[in-house]
Each structure stands twice: as structure tokens, then as C-alpha cells.
């Protein structure tokens, strides 16, 4: 039987965050337990009204249901929202608006405002699809887009000598196709590399979320957050997500290589609209 779990995360002032201990930081900024069989987890954050979703279909297709419609106080979850969906598990399908999209591992799907009858399905319950989705308020209905991992090329960034050699792939951004707010992509570190997003940066006009995945059993990422002059860290495990407020830096160092899905929502979709923080300026 399908179960739905909903969390609400309120916006936190940076001075408040700087007074928090480890447990409080985890409570407000770390999202755990996203994937369970026949389960949908939704985290509604007051940072740009982003909703994070983890969906793991088992033997039967799963839809959003009235609980998520009530969460956004609309007659349907996507009545006034757009959504970006990644599959980080086994092969699956998303049915939406009368169409079926075959979702191979690391494929992504953009669905516009007004899309109805969205269903998620695993092709093989023994190797279930894991759908990670981000949804933001929308003002227009743009065309749906299925972005196939096999057909998209990323940018090689960083260097082996600085342990941040990585491939950054932009899936949803203005140069590819129009969205209202969402900008999403995936970064994968090369073997032997552990640092992401260096130098770190902030962007006051939009929030960001990271989903860390492809972390081997027993490994972790030390994710750094906070204002540049007062940084904090969180220990993140496989398939856990971080909420990054506009005032916070976001970067991480793993005990092994890993990958992460990044997404942004807010006023500005320009990818380079960020304020870099040189490493010597971090405290």
C-alpha cells in the first residue's frame, strides 16, 4: 500500500543557524530517508517554496494523491507548479498528460504547470526506479521535455591535482529549453576525486538543493554550509539531500568519489549568477 510522508521546513536566518548544534543543523538542512518501497516523501521548504520529493514505486504505479494537492492548497499538485524529475535507480516509467516516458538511469523529465495524472512506475520491482524530483511555483506552462542521459554531454571541470576533477551536466536550463524557475543538473566526480563546487559560492537570488548519491556503502560527504565567515558542516550519506539557503555557501568533500543532483529556484536562472568565495576568505 502506498504511503506518503510530508515534512515542512521553515526558512532560517543565518544568525540563528550559527547558534545551532549538530542535531539542529541536521533537522533544518538535511533531508534523509527519501526512498522506501511504495513510499513518497515530500519536503516543502520555505526557501523559494521548493518541494523535494523521493518516490520509489514497488509493484504498482504511484501518483501524487490528494495529500500533495492539499500541501500546496490546489486541486492538483502541479496546478500552479512545474517539476523536474530524475531517475537514479533501475529502469522505470513516468506517465503524464497521456504520455509515457521511459526513464533509464540518470534520465530526467521536465513537466510544466497544469500537468495532470502523473504516475511513477518501476520496470522491475526487484530493481526499482528511484525518482528524485524538485518542484517550484510556476507562472506559465512550457512544453514538457524528456532529457536522456545517453544523449546529453557534460562539461569537464576541475583538475586531478586539486582532487575536484568532475563532469557537470546541465539538464534543465534556459539555453536548453524554457522553464519558469527550475534549473537542474548532475555532477559526477571522477575516480580519485573528492571535492565539489570549488571555489564555493553564494547566490542571494535563489536557493539550491543537493542530492548526494552513488556513495559507496560506509562512505560519506562532509558538506560545508553557512556564511563564508562562519561555516558549518554536515555529514551526508548516500541518497540524502541538503537544503542550501541563498545566504549559504555549498561545497563538499567525500571520503570517496560520488555524484550529486543540483537544483535551483528563485528570481534568476542565469547559471553564472553567483558570488564566488575564495578559499582564503572562508572561516
Concise summary:
This protein has 283 residues and is mostly beta strands.
What does this 3D model show about the protein?
- By secondary structure, the protein is mostly beta strands.
- The chain has two domains: 3-13 and 33-149, Sandwich (Jelly Rolls), CATH 2.60.120; 150-281, Jelly Rolls.
- The chain is built from three helices and 24 strands.
- It has helices spanning 14-17, 22-29, 65-71, and strands spanning 3-9, 30-31, 39-45, 51-56, 62-63, 81-87, 92-96, 99-103, 108-111, 119-122, 131-137, 145-147, 155-157, 166-172, 183-189, 195-196, 201-202, 206-213, 221-225, 232-236, 240-244, 251-254, 259-266, 275-276.
- The chain has a seven-stranded mixed sheet, covered by helices on one side.
- A hairpin with a 5-residue loop joins strand 3 and strand 4 (51-56).
- It is globular and about 55 Å long.
- The model has no long low-confidence stretch (mean pLDDT 96).
